[in-house]
Amino acid sequence: MKQFTLILIHASNDEVGDLVNRHLMDLGLSILPGVFISWQPRQKIEERLVSTKEELIDMIERGFRGEFAYAIIELNNEQFKAIRPLIASRLEDEDQRMISWGEALLRRIRSPHRERVKREYSSFNKRYKWLITMHELFDIKHELLNRVLELTMELRIKYERNLK
Fold first, then answer.
1. Same domain membership, residue 139 and residue 114
2. d(CA 81, CA 60)
3. Of 20, 46, 75, which marks where a domain is finished?
4. The pLDDT value given to residue 161
């Protein structure tokens, strides 16, 4: 089984939280506020967190007030199974957002007013690829994912017919 790591973050304010999120965005999935799960090696996670601290120190030297602390916990199989429902719930939320976004985008593609549809379709497609990767990494499949897959296929067909 793939090794997963839980990262617990304490941020003293929203700006610090945003800074941490930007630094960890491509290393893991935020499953709760201040809680990330990652598939990356511990060393890579630690390097990124140290980089975050260094950036925060630079900000503090310029007068910013904030702090953050973290804990890194490498999960065994039982621990991963215990938090897997949180991951599934988070991915269901993401699936639902993608469905809403995709349905709205499909309506815009079908309408005569198609301003900015190409750029939005590109953003949608990028997020779709990320979501599929998350489902594969955590081996989570459910009905909402099937709806995302169907909707994305329909979007591609309409997009290619109407905008290419």
1. yes
2. 39
3. 75
4. 87
Q: How many whole angstroms separate alpha carbon 4 and alpha carbon 9?
A: 16
Q: How far is CA 93 from CA 30, 33, 86, 113, 133, in A?
A: 12, 14, 11, 29, 15
Query: How do the residues of the chain divide into helix, strand and coil, expressed in percent and rounded to 5?
Result: 65, 15, 20
Co-location of 88 and 63 in the same domain? no
Q: Which residues have CB under 8 Å from 84's CB, separation 6+?
A: 138, 140
**Looking at the structure, do residues 106 and 52 belong to the same domain, yes or no?**
no
Q: Report the number of distinct structural domains present in the chain.
A: 2
- Among 49, 75, 101, residue at a domain's last position: 75
pTM, two decimal places: 0.86
Instruction: Return averaged pLDDT per consecutive 10 residues of the chain, 164 residues in all.
Output: 90 90 91 94 95 92 91 95 96 97 92 82 95 95 95 93 77
Burial of 38 from C-beta contacts in 10 A (0-12 / 13-18 / 19+): buried
Q: Whose structure tokens read 């900015």?
A: 116
Q: Which two tokens stand for residue 26?
A: 């491509």
Q: Which domain holds residue 38?
A: 5-75
